[in-house]
Automatic annotation (TrEMBL), chain A:
Coiled-coil region: none
Transmembrane segment boundaries: 12-35, 68-88, 100-118, 152-169, 203-223, 235-260, 272-289
Protein name per Swiss-Prot or TrEMBL: Urea ABC transporter permease subunit UrtB
CDD domains recorded: TM_PBP1_LivH_like
Naturally occurring in which organism (per UniProt): Sorangium atrum
TrEMBL record, chain B:
Annotated protein name in UniProt: Urea ABC transporter substrate-binding protein
UniProt cross-references to Pfam families, sorted A to Z: Peripla_BP_5
Taxonomic lineage: Bacteria, Pseudomonadati, Myxococcota, Polyangia, Polyangiales
Gene: urtA
Organism: Sorangium atrum
InterPro entries the record matches: ABC_urea-bd_UrtA, Leu_Ile_Val-bd, Peripla_BP_I, TAT_signal
Highest taxon in the source lineage: Bacteria
Gene3D superfamilies: 3.40.50.2300
Length: 298, 433
């Protein structure tokens, strides 16, 4: 019984990580058709922001153990990555709308620049972020099985992000404008929505969400200049499987891939499990090219 | 790209700004290429048919190549090795150079990309006519460069422990081969009563070859294989693997993970409730430099196997650590590959001085005659005349809370290199392949 619970938890937890890293991409790629290869570097920017906050702010707010700093690092990562995204949108992406392949090349270049910038700023070596004491350890179950607090926290964080994004999109004026522009740009413009401004805000929001993912991932993995490259392929896979332009699709896709990956890995090996997930995703897209929950194309 | 709910036509028409946008994109790409120091476009490949230049330089100086990844994922490890190599070159120059000539390092970036390593190696040997190249880290990069060094008759000093079963006439190996790192580490675990061993590695050539060796060794020495798992290189999702390890109930884990996966593994292993007392992990690709990225409190108490630690107690090491920190900053640490990158330059210098020439054939001849040995920071090291590997002392260490590593066992004397494990009857079939 515990075994089953543990594997279900692992699947859910992997799904939550996938959702965290792909939610931002669902905006820039899913909604705006920008093949944003720099998405991984926004994640990295969030991770390094967390590192900086941990180094310089933590001693002021009770030390690394107390962990208040980590709660401050979350919004800080969102802001830093969001501002980077905004700058990228204003300086480059806005010239490239409607040309997805150009955005692929350009953002890939930007990603390299950001990686090398991180190398110059923080050194090529990985850095370390220590965990707040309330995230260390886990809930012990019988039979020596333990559910780490970090994973529980990640699941909670993802749920909080989903609720926040949903509320923003459906309950706020800014969110309504965003949906209006993404659904019908001309009509929205005619009705007085400043479409350009909405573009910039949407892209920045996507980047900011990547920043939050980066902050959370410092608790699980490495923090180095090439951190983003570990996650970028998974993020694209989730968004494509979910269906472009469909945020609920991204949520479902992340959970499906997370659980499928865990189950497949359990019965095979890590490498084979991952390959099988890719194969299944490709097969599924052959059958339904628009993804799990696709919009009916107009 | 398939059509989504948002058609391309929905986007603002970019007509007037098309050319400008193109310029911006091109500029960004060019910038990226420059910054990441790939810069392939800047380099003309040597014209085919050019004869390999004689490995000589002008009368007052000798060019030597330094080829490591200064960008990309492997730069994490390789930048520090490059630094140590340059430190040795600087020290040698201060002390009067080699054969009375100053060494001029030509530093190239392999960019964590194996074809780039090969390209740069060819450039160093053909275009720059360097006398020797110090470089490489991953086995993939070495295997990529190997044919070029053999074809152009260049010379490579390779500073990292590797999986063995190789002996190129144009490569000197200053890192450990399995009998100087992996085999003694497994023996150590067995001696400590850790019979059931779980093998965990990254999915590429080094861990898979190392694990083949370990399995043969376990089978012949009464050990037991508790399980074997490989994580894709760079993978960070280890919760399922930790579940599998829990189910297998091993006495110890032999870890050949490389790079970022180690960070993810040790962080999540600790959160799953495992400590070094409960289930020790012995790693062969985690040194002081990697411990910093993992976080010392996540890996404290676990074991590693190398030939050198920053704490190794020799007068030469004290001098080396001081010089390294003075040059690159007090927060930097030294570790095994860094040290091998450092003393490799000295071994080459001794061979050249013995040969009285930088010509590859003569240098190799001098090594073959034997007696090229040096008091390195790790103790005495000697280039083996027969197999071009290095005699090295083996040390098992335990990670301290402050991130340094304490020696807990040592072979006491340099161990003869045996890249094909010919002295081990159980390894016969491995070497035959």
């Amino acid at each position: 019984m515990n075994e089953v619970l543990l594997h279900a938890f692992n699947g859910l937890s992997l799904g939550s990580i996938l959702l965290l890293i792909s939610m931002g991409l669902a905006f820039s790629f899913g909604l705006m058709n920008v093949i944003n290869m720099a998405h991984g570097e926004f994640i990295m920017a969030g991770a390094y922001t967390t590192y900086v906050v941990g180094q310089h702010v933590a001693p002021l707010v009770g030390g690394t153990e107390a962990g208040l700093w980590f709660l401050l690092a979350l919004p800080a990562s969102f802001l830093v990555a969001g501002v980077l995204g905004l700058l990228l949108e204003l300086s480059m992406i806005r010239f490239l709308y409607g040309r997805p392949l150009d955005t692929l090349l350009a953002t890939w270049g930007v990603g390299l620049v950001l990686q090398q910038a991180a190398r110059s700023l923080f050194g090529a070596s990985n850095v370390q972020v220590s965990s707040p004491s309330w995230l260390s350890g886990g809930v012990a179950l019988s039979g020596g099985v333990q559910l780490p607090y970090k994973r529980v926290f990640l699941i909670a964080l993802v749920i909080a992000c989903i609720v926040a994004v949903y509320t923003y999109l459906h309950r706020s004026a800014g969110g309504r404008r965003l949906r209006a522009v993404m659904q019908n740009r001309e009509m929205a413009s005619c009705l007085g929505v400043r479409a350009r401004r909405v573009d910039a805000a949407t892209f920045a929001l996507g980047a900011g969400l990547a920043g939050i993912a980066g902050c959370a991932l410092t608790q699980l993995g490495s923090i180095g200049p090439s951190l983003g490259t570990n996650y970028i392929v998974d993020a694209f896979m989730v968004v494509i499987l979910g269906g472009l332009g469909r945020l609920p699709g991204t949520v479902v896709a992340a959970l499906v891939i997370g659980v499928a990956n865990t189950l497949l890995e359990l019965s095979t090996t890590a490498s084979l499990g991952k390959a099988l997930v890719f194969a299944l995703v490709i097969a599924f897209l052959q059958w339904r090219p628009t993804g799990l929950l696709a919009l009916r194309t107009r | 790209m398939y059509t989504s709910g948002l058609d391309v036509e929905d986007r603002p028409a970019a007509g007037t700004s098309r050319r400008r946008a193109l310029c911006v994109a091109m500029a960004a790409l060019a910038g990226a290429a420059l910054l990441s120091a790939c810069g392939k476009a800047n380099e003309e490949a040597p014209a085919p048919g050019t004869t390999p230049a004689a490995p000589a330089s002008d009368s007052a100086s000798i060019k030597v190549g330094v080829l490591h990844s200064l960008s990309g994922t492997m730069s994490i490890s390789e930048v520090a090795v490059k630094d140590a190599t340059l430190l040795a070159i600087e020290e040698i120059n201060k002390a009067g150079g080699v054969l009375g000539k100053q060494l001029v390092p030509v530093v190239e970036d392999g960019a964590s990309d194996w074809p780039t390593f090969n390209e740069k190696a060819r450039k160093l040997v053909q275009q720059d006519a360097v006398a020797v190249v110090f470089g490489g880290w991953t086995s993939a990069s070495r295997k990529a460069m190997l044919p070029s060094f053999e074809e152009l008759n260049g010379l490579l000093f390779y500073p990292v422990q590797y999986e063995g079963l190789e002996q190129s006439p144009n490569i000197f190996y200053t890192g450990a081969e399995p009998s100087q790192q992996i085999v003694p580490a497994v023996d150590y675990l067995l001696e400590k009563g850790k019979k059931r061993i779980y093998l965990l590695g990254s999915d590429y050539v080094f861990p898979r070859t190392a694990n083949k060796i370990i399995k043969a060794q376990l089978a012949s020495k009464g050990g037991e294989l508790a399980g074997e798992e490989y994580l894709p290189l760079g993978g960070t999702e280890v919760s399922t693997i930790i579940s599998k390890i829990s189910a297998a109930k091993p006495d110890a884990i032999f870890n050949t993970l490389n790079g970022d996966s180690n960070v993810a593994f040790f962080k999540q292993f600790k959160d799953a409730g495992y400590t070094a007392d409960k289930l020790p992990v012995l790693s062969v690709s985690v040194a002081e430099e990697e411990v910093r990225g993992i976080g010392a409190d996540n890996i404290a108490g676990h074991l590693v196997s190398w030939n050198y630690y920053q704490t190794t107690d020799t007068p030469e090491n004290k001098k080396f650590v001081d010089a390294y920190k003075a040059k690159y900053g007090a927060t930097r640490v030294t570790d095994d590959p860094i040290e091998a990158g450092y003393f490799g330059v000295y071994l080459w210098k001794m061979a050249v001085e013995k040969a009285k020439s930088t010509e590859v054939a003569k240098v190799k001849e001098a090594v073959k005659a034997g007696g090229i040995e040096y008091n390195a920071p790790e103790g005495l090291v000697r280039l083996d005349g027969k197999n071009q590997h290095t005699w090295k002392t083996v040390r098992i260490g335990a990670v301290r809370k402050d991130g340094l590593i304490d020696e807990v066992w040592s072979s006491g004397k340099p161990v003869q290199p045996d890249p094909y494990l010919s002295a081990y009857p159980w390894a016969k079939e491995l070497a035959a392949k």
